[in-house]
Design the sequence.
């Protein structure tokens, strides 16, 4: 599935409600999922890890939708050989 | 670009170093990017927003790589009609 397809799927299912909620409140849900990912990473439950990764990605797409950002297009910065900003060790 | 292609691109460029760094230290870099996304969302700079969304996604892929999680496969939970766990208003 393309990045843009997944973002559109999330838009179709949730964007109307997401926009009503607004960016700050949606960011708080996103962070809740990030916290659940941290818990999953510290545990040894592969299925739960998978679920939490998907949830964080879904909420990132939700934030992108209500911020009018095309995530796949934004990722162009990583497809060149000269990536700026990625952290060293 | 497929979700899996982007994850593989990040793997090819960074996974060896990411694995050396380990999950806890990599999670800290991820959170730094999440913080930068928060700053970008609070500002009115579309280009910076796009960059920060891409960075958060790239670091999420890095975490998935070193956790042996296939992010595209994990997203299957969102492609059915009955999504569990997505937050209400």
Sequence:
């Amino acid at each position: 599935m393309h990045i843009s397809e997944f973002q559109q799927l999330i838009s179709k299912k949730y964007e109307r409600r997401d926009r009503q909620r607004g960016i700050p409140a949606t960011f708080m849900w996103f962070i809740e999922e990030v916290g659940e990912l941290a818990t999953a990473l510290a545990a040894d439950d592969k299925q739960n890890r998978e679920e939490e990764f998907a949830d964080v990605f879904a909420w990132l797409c939700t934030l992108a939708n209500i911020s009018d950002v095309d995530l796949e297009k934004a990722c162009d910065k990583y497809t060149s050989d000269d990536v700026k900003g990625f952290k060293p060790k």
